[in-house]
Design brief:
The protein is of the alpha+beta class. The chain starts with a helix and ends in a 29-residue tail after the last helix. The protein has helices spanning 2-20, 92-127, 133-166, 355-359, and strands at 32-38, 40-44, 47-56, 59-63, 68-73, 79-80, 85-89, 168-170, 175-180, 187-188, 193-198, 203-210, 222-227, 230-240, 249-256, 266-272, 277-283, 288-289, 294-299, 305-316, 319-324, 331-335, 346-349. It has four domains: 32-46 and 276-359, conserved putative lor/sdh protein from methanococcus maripaludis s2 fold (Beta Barrel), CATH 2.40.420; 49-57 and 202-272, Elongation Factor Tu (Ef-tu), domain 3, CATH 2.40.30; 63-89 and 167-201, OB fold (Dihydrolipoamide Acetyltransferase, E2P) (Beta Barrel), CATH 2.40.50; 91-166, Helix Hairpins (Orthogonal Bundle), CATH 1.10.287.
Length: 388
């Protein structure tokens, strides 16, 4: 019994001895590193994404302009320049016809020269009453007929030369051969399709949208197109307001830089669907998207983070309209908000990246695409609520 009292006494003394030592101070958590951007009033417009297709403004099926046997044709994939020969038709018949008509022209010229000289001779004799007037007038008439015959022969010779030239099919514009519609050895009639030529450097985007959206787009407006090469702004070349009772859509054509997308590529075109409005906007990167709510972190004058719930609206490129406890000029976090906690001290860094580059992949303007939530989040050290 006495030994138990001794043990209790020793333990009590040890406990008080430990309690007498000063408790080490917990290390202070460093401020979170963030990047911020100010909330702004911006003029924005509601938009929608419409499918578009890349087409060439010069896409032709080249046909034969004369009949004959096809001797040669450019292979598929051959790139040609304007005026370059892309197919040849047998020209033997046209060469023979050209020689025949050239001889006829020479004959008519000789006949005309004779009648012109004869007319001059009879004119001198008629003045001296050595030739009859009737003979002179007949020679004059024959000379006029000979001039007409020479003109006809020259025109027929030019036609033969034109047909000879057309036996060589030339490219009407620079491009690439994408299809052979006839093969060497085949006999072609006038109008027979020989090959398809496409200029892949003169491109445009064709998009179709409901007719009720047409008043919000004008020729010359710059619209955003999105594809695997990213997003870019391109001008509207023309609007074709020709709907029908089945589709009720209009056609829009936008200029596209060369060698960005191939012909036939499907893109997405962002078109306005309403008039512009002045709204409170923030960069898309400021949004913290969760299934429960969408929030942003606002940095106070003391350098502390305040979490604010917002409702999103229309968007334009990297900016999106919001409603909530925000004012123009407030600084919202665009980098570093993933692990930020309400009331946490922050250190603001200079932005080194363009927010528009990181947000250009967003495509839905009427409703934000939900991001996947992380599997787990760190527990707060101060016991604050972490539901975003």
């Amino acid at each position: 019994m006495k030994s138990k009292q001794v043990i209790v006494t020793l333990l009590s003394g040890l406990f008080f001895l430990l309690c007498s030592f000063p408790v080490a101070a917990q290390p202070k958590r460093p401020p979170a590193q963030v990047q911020v951007k100010e909330v702004e009033f911006r003029s924005m417009v509601a938009t929608a994404m419409m499918p578009g297709t890349v087409v060439s403004r010069e896409d032709a099926r080249i046909s034969a302009e004369v009949s004959g046997r096809l001797l040669a044709i450019a292979d598929i994939g051959t790139r040609v320049e304007k005026g370059e020969v892309i197919a040849r038709i047998d020209d033997t018949r046209f060469k023979l016809q050209q020689r025949e008509l050239a001889a006829q022209v020479a004959r008519e010229k000789a006949r005309l020269n004779f009648l012109q000289a004869e007319e001059k001779r009879l004119s001198r004799l008629a003045k001296k009453n050595l030739a009859s007037t009737t003979q002179y007038e007949q020679t004059t008439a024959d000379r006029q007929v000979a001039e007409s015959d020479l003109t006809v022969a020259e025109v027929r010779l030019e036609q033969a030369q034109d047909e000879l030239m057309r036996s060589k099919i030339s490219a009407p514009f620079p491009g690439v051969v994408v299809a052979r519609l006839s093969n060497p050895g085949e006999r072609l009639a006038v109008g027979t399709e020989v090959l398809r030529l496409v200029n892949d450097n003169n491109l445009e985007v064709v998009a179709r949208a409901p007719l009720e959206y047409m008043p919000f787009s004008q020729r010359g407006d710059k619209l955003e197109i999105t594809g695997n090469a990213g997003s870019m702004m391109v001008p509207v070349r023309t609007l074709v307001a020709v709907g029908n009772e089945r589709t009720h859509v209009y056609e829009m054509r936008l200029d596209l830089p060369a060698k960005v997308y191939p012909v036939g590529k499907t893109l997405r075109v962002r078109i306005p669907v309403a008039t512009s409005a002045e709204v409170l906007a923030i960069p898309r990167d400021a949004l913290v998207l969760r299934s429960q709510a969408t929030t942003v972190f606002v940095i106070s004058m003391e350098g502390k983070a305040r979490q604010v719930r917002v409702e999103t609206g229309i968007s334009e490129q990297q900016w999106i309209a919001v409603e909530g406890d925000l004012q123009a000029g407030d600084k919202v976090v665009i980098r570093g908000a993933e692990r930020l906690r309400p009331g946490q001290q922050v250190s603001i860094q200079e932005s080194t990246t363009n927010s528009s580059e990181s947000s250009s992949s967003y495509t839905d303007t009427l409703e934000l695409e939900k991001l996947v939530e992380p599997e787990s989040e760190p527990e707060p050290e101060d016991g604050s609520d972490t539901t975003h």
